[in-house]
Amino acid sequence: METEIFRQWNTWRTFTLKTLQRVEESQVDKIPERFNNNIRWNAGHIVVIHDRLTAQMLGEAPSYPEGYDTYFDKGTSPDDWDDQVPSLNEIMAELEGQVEKLRGSIQGRLGEEPKGNVFNMPTIGDLAMFAVGHEAMHLSTIQSLMRMTK
């Protein structure tokens, strides 16, 4: 089962990165009507939540770059950004290396009970699969934003 979970992590991250590579500069920060956030926020949010979820599973502190939670955590908004917000390219660089880094943290431990369990899931593996679903959901939002901002 471990191989399948990590394969899903890699597959969805590849989909996310390939999609982000197709984003035009003019689309990055547009927020269409009925949307709360933009493409850059959704990409950064994936970084923050994937990292935080993994850290919580292990009872550790997150390792995403300083300030990322200020810009991309649940409940934040691009309306509150300053000129220090990471660029889409910086976020993509974080996304590129993140899966392997986090995989190293939980490999061989998927059957263990998580130390911090926000979602009441019985194992680290269950939470790892939740992370896949979360990324897929935000990838879908990014794809919708791309269509709406063409």
Automatic annotation (TrEMBL):
Sequence ranges assigned to domain DinB-like in this UniProt record = 16-142
List, alphabetically, the InterPro entries matched.
DinB-like, DinB/YfiT-like
Q: Which domain of life is it from?
A: Bacteria
Q: What is this protein called?
A: DinB family protein
Q: Which species is this UniProt entry from?
A: Alkalihalophilus sp. As8PL
